[in-house]
Amino acid sequence: MFCINWETSWLGKGKQAGIEALAEMMLALQKMGCHNINLVTPTHYSAHIVLALDIAASKGLRLPIVYNTCGWERIEILKMLDGIVDIYLPDFKYSEGRMAVKYSSGAQTYPEITKQALLEMHRQVGVTKPAEDDLMYRGLMIRHLVMPNQISGTKEVIQWIAENLPKDTYLNIMAQYTPVYRANEFPEISRMITREEYKEAVNWAKEAGLTNLDIQGY
After folding, report:
1. What's the predicted TM-score (pTM) here?
2. Of 70, 131, 75, 101, which Cα lies nearest the Cα of 1?
3. Rounded CA gap, 208 and 31, in Å?
4. Phi, psi of 37 (to 5 degrees)
5. Tens of pLDDT along 164-180?
6. What is the CATH number that goes with domain 67-215?
7. Contact, 160 vs 189, CB < 8 A?
8. For the chain, which residues make up each domain, given as ranges?
């Protein structure tokens, strides 16, 4: 209900491209000097992406592959990507299924499925740390969007990460929630977050012992 890219996700803006064309796009990005190939919400095209990667790699693609996802992933698909994906960049959007149902297409099982997905992602790529050039090349990078009125269950999300993954797991605590698309239909999410709400989230993460935090200044 608050998708910032709703023109793409709901209206289908964009253009079609075949597997060969996708491979050439990846090679063009490498030639331009991009640091990685960032695949956003890719799972429904994962088979096509793997085929394109095979072609691109045979022609010299060497960039890290970033799997940029909402976190609601099937374990059997993730296991097929083991050894292909270098950086997993999942969201952990909600701690409660009832919130996922209300704001994200009836995704009742979102918390349970995402937790299992995060564990599998960590098993594959481990904790991410910057290299000498300050870039990331491998690892799990979790994002959590702080929402107004504790809609996303930030404290519970942080607690789960602290209890089930290493304390130095990378966590980006995102402050940029914006009430777009249909958010204004829901009074509880029809505003930006406050400074106090974001500061509270950061304090929860520090109190939980998490040490690899990406904090957006407040």
Report:
1. 0.95
2. 101
3. 42
4. -105, 110
5. 999 999 999 999 999 99
6. 3.20.20.70
7. no
8. 18-63, 67-215
